[in-house]
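Obj.: predict assembly geometry.
Materials: sequence records (below).
Method: joint structure prediction, all chains together.
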Amino acid sequence: MIDLLLRLTDFVIPANAIAAEVSDRQTMSGNIGFIVLAIIVGPVIILTIASMLGHPRTFRIPGLFIGSMILLISAIISSFAAAGMLLKLIIPQ
Amino acid sequence: MQRQNKKLTRRQFVTGSVGAMGLLAILSSPFIAVLNRARAATGTAPITEGKKPTRAWCMVIDLKKCEGCVTIGVPPQCTQACIAGHFVPQGQQWIQVYEVESPGGGTFFMPTPCYQCDNAPCVNVCPVAATYHNKEGIVLIDHRRCIGCRLCMAACPYQRRFFNWGTPKLPPEAAFAEYSPFYPVPAVKGTVIKCMFCAHMLEAGKLPLCVTGCPMKALYMGDLNEDIASNGAEVVKLSKFLDENDAFRYKEGLGTQPRVWYLPGHGQAFGRKPDDHREFKTPTWTWGDSGFNHHPGIWPWGEDF
Amino acid sequence: MAAMMRRPEPDRTNVALLRPLLHTGQGFYFFAVALLIPAAWFVYAWYLQLIRGLGLTSMRTPVGAPWGAYIANFVFFVGLAHGGIAIAAAIRLLNLTKYTPVARIGEVLTIISLMMAGVSITIDMGRPDRIFNIIIYWPQRVGTSSLSWDVTVIIIYFTLSTLYLWLTMRKDLVLCAKRFPKLSWFYKILLIGYKPDEEHKIERMAWWLSIAIVFLIVMLSGGVVPWIFGLLPSQPGWFSALAGPYFLTAAIGSAIAAVIVVSGVLRKLFNWQEYIKPEIFKGLGTFLGIITLFYIYLILAEQLTMRYAAPLSEFLISEKLFQGEFAPIFWPMLLLGFFTPAIILVSQAIHPQWFGVTRTILASGAIVVAFWVKRFLIVVPSLLRPLLPFPEGSYSPSWVEWSIVAGIIASAILLYTLFLKVFPIVELGEE
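Observations (raw C-alpha cells):
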C-alpha cells in the first residue's frame, strides 16, 4: 500500500535522497512562519466567516462564496501545475 | 419552522466546513511524515545510521600558512583542485582566495569555501527545501528540486552561493558523472550551486579536494564530534588547535554559526611578509570559454548585441 | 448602437457607462494592436530566456546583482494591487459614497496587477518549470521561508479581491445579460444562483470582506513582501524594521496614483466627465499628495539612519544613491517623481482655484513612474555591494529584461482593455 502511494507521489514529486539525508536539526525555530501566518490568516478567516453569518439569513450567497473560493484557490494551484508542465516542454531539460 | 431548518443547515455547513478543513490539515501532517519516512526507507542514501559515528564536519583554515600560492607563482591550488574535481563552471570559484588588506597597508590571503553555517540563512529562506543540512552538518543543494529563485543568494551574508545562468560548457567527461547533491556534477541550468565540503570525498573516507590540493597544507578538515582535524600531513586535536591559535570565524556577529574557523596570519609560516606584493594569479579553466553564454542567439539581428 | 435601439427606454446614464461595451471602434483595434506588439515581443524574449537561461539578463554573480528589474517589477505590481481594493473598502467602511464611480476601476487594477506580479516572479525564476515545487513543499517550508508566506498571502488576497469584485458586480451583470444577448451565456455563468433579493446579503458580506481585505493589504504590502527583504541581515539597506511601513506607504501611494491615472484616461476616452466628477480627482489627489510627502519623510528617515552613525556598509549603499552610479536616477526620482508632484497635489488642496484634473493626472503619472524606479533602487544597490573583499559589480537591465518588463506592462493594459469590453467598469444605476 505504502509502496503504491510512494510510486504515485513519485509521479508528482520525484523522490530523491533528501528525505534520508536531511537532518532533523532545526536551524531556526521552525514555527515562526506558522505564528506569522496564523496572525495574518486567522483574522481573515474570522472576518470571512463573520461576513457569511448575520442578518439576512440566507445560505445561498455564502454557499456560492465558499464554493467559488475553493474553486478559485484550486484553479490557482492547478494553474501552477499546468504552467510547470507547459514550461517543462519548452525548457530543454 | 422553516427558518429553524435553514439556520441549522447554515450552522452545520459552517462548522462542518471548518471542521473538515481542520481535520484535513491534521490528517495530512502525519501522512506527509509517513511518506517522508517511507521514502527514507526506500531511498538509496549512502548514510546508514548506527554503523558509523555521526560526523560533524568543519574546516580550519590556517592563514599563517596561506600565501595565496604567490610564492610558488601559481593560481591558488585549492581553487584549482576544486575546479578540476567538480567540473566547476567557468567563473564560479566555490573556494575562492581573496587578497584582503591589512590595517598597515599589507595584505593577507583568505580562502573562502561555503561556511556550512549551523544556523544557515539560506536553509531558512528556501521555499522548496532544496537546500538543507545533512546529518553531518553540511549544507547541500538538491539541483533537481531547486527552482532558482535566488532568495538564498540574497540571504547568504558571505556571498558563497553561485548561480548557473545557463547551461555551462563543460568537458565531455562531466556528462558521465552521476549526479547527487553530494557531487553536483554536471551543473544544472537555472539552479544555485556552491561548495559542499566535498561530501562525496568525505563519504569515501577521503579529505576534500581543496585540502589535499593545498601545497602548503593550510586547510584542515575536522570533525567536531571526534574533536580531531587533519590537513593530510598531520592530525591535531581540534579544540586545542583552535584555542592555541586564536581561531576566529568570519562575521561571527551575524550569528550564523559558521563551521569554518580561521587562524589569523599572513602566510608567515612560509616566510611571506604582509607587504609582499607579488602578483596573485587568478584561477584558470580549461573549459567554458568565457563563462555562461549571455548572447540571445536567435535574435533577429545576429548573435551579439 | 443596435443594442441600444432594441431597448424601449434606454437609460441615459447606463448607456453612457456601457459605452465601451456598446461601441468597438477603429481606435480600439489600433490600441489593441499597439499593445499586442510589445506583448508578443515579450513572449518572444521570454522564450529566448527560457531556452538560453537567465544569462540573457544583466544579472551576474558573484560580482553583480542576483536580482534585478524583474523583482523590482514584482514589488511594483504587488504595490499597485493595493489601491483599488483599498479605495473600494474605504468607500464601504467610511461611507465615502462620492468615490463609488472609481471603486471598480481600482478593483480591476488590483486583480490584473496581482496576475502581473505572479508573471514577474515566474520569469525571474531560474527553473520556472518547477514552480509547482513551491506548492508541494509548502507544508515543509512555510515554517521559515518568507517566500512561502508570500505565496500563501498573495493567493488569499487574490482570491478574496476577485470574489469581492464578483459579488459586488453581480447586480450589474444582470443588466448586462439583458442588454447583450450574445454574451449572456457568459454573464449567466457568473450569475449562477442569482435571485433579485440577494443585494442586501451581498452588501453585508462586502462590508465584512472589506475589513478582511484592508487587513490583508497591511499584511501583504506592509508584511510578507517587505519581509522578503527586511528579514535578511546579510544585505545592508534591506535589513530594517522600517521595511514594512516603507513598502506599505509605497504600495498605497503607487496604487492611488495608478487609479487616478486610469480613471482620468477612461474619463477622457469615454466622455464620462459627468460620472467621474472632478472632486473625485481632487480628493484622491490630496490624499496622494499627503501619502507621497509621508513617503519622502520615510526616505529621509531611512537615509539619515544609513548615513548618520551607521556601519560603513549602510553608508556605502546610501552613497551609491546620493553620489554614486544611481545618483542620476535617484535625484530626478526624488525631485521630479515625488517632491514636485506632491507639492502640486497638496497646493491644489490648499488653493482650490489651482486645481486641474489634467494636472492631477500628470502628477499622479509621475508618481507611478517614480515608484517603479524606487523599487528598482531598493532591490539593486544593496545587492551590488560586495559582501567579501572583491570588486564591486554593476547592473543595468539588458534588452531582454526591458522587453519583458515593457511587455508585462503592455499585457496589463491589454487585459484591462479586454475587461472594459466585457464588464461595466463603473457601477451602473437602476434600470
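Conclusions so far: Confidence is low (pLDDT under 50) at residues 1-8, 40-50 of chain B.
To do: check interface contacts against the pulldown list.
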